[in-house]
Amino acid sequence: MNNLDALEPWLAGLLAKTEPRQRIALARGVGQIMRKFNAARVTANVEPDGTPMTPRNPKKPRKSGKPRKGKAGRMFKRIELARNMQAQPSADEVSLSFKPRIAQTAKEHHYGLEGPVDRRIRNSIRVRYKARRLLGFGPGDREALLGEVMGWLENR
Predict the structure, then answer these.
(1) Which phi and psi (to 5°) does residue 87 adopt?
(2) Alpha-carbon 46 to chain mean position
(3) Are residues 146 and 4 in contact, defined by beta-carbon separation less than 8 angstroms?
(4) Are 116 and 124 in contact (CB under 8 A)?
(5) What is the pLDDT of residues 61-89, one digit of tens each?
(6) 94 with 51: CB under 8 angstroms?
(7) What is the pLDDT of residue 141?
(8) How far is CA 112 from CA 52, 83, 136, in A?
(9) Angle, nearest 10°, between helix axes 141-155 and 3-16?
(10) In the prediction, which pLDDT does 110 show?
(11) CA-to-CA distance for 59 and 56, rounded, in angstroms?
């Protein structure tokens, strides 16, 4: 049994006794930490469990023989920005989500759904994307979150 497993029931009882405003402030801090961890994983093209994301399909070379520019390396170049990945705290929970314009793209890649290649083009070709988990709990997230909660309790 891990020491954290014994600590969590005690911590839940203590948090239940705090005011909702204080729990929302704590949830905001926890949400920021989770956003930071998930953004770092998306930037590194790593899934929450630590495995690398499925790479992009290679592009066909041009007929002219010139190499293609851009779109090499990272897959989700702007999805990890704080303005696009939002943490919504409440007194009982924290949810991490994407802004509505980005949420559909994130959903297609997270679950491996079918979607248009370019949303700006009306009849764009549709592709089934490989599942790449964007949000989730990683190996060290639990300890970091409990550290945040314990730090919050010390400052109260």
Answers:
(1) -105, 125
(2) 11
(3) yes
(4) yes
(5) 778 878 776 655 678 888 888 899 999 99
(6) no
(7) 87
(8) 16, 24, 16
(9) 40
(10) 92
(11) 9
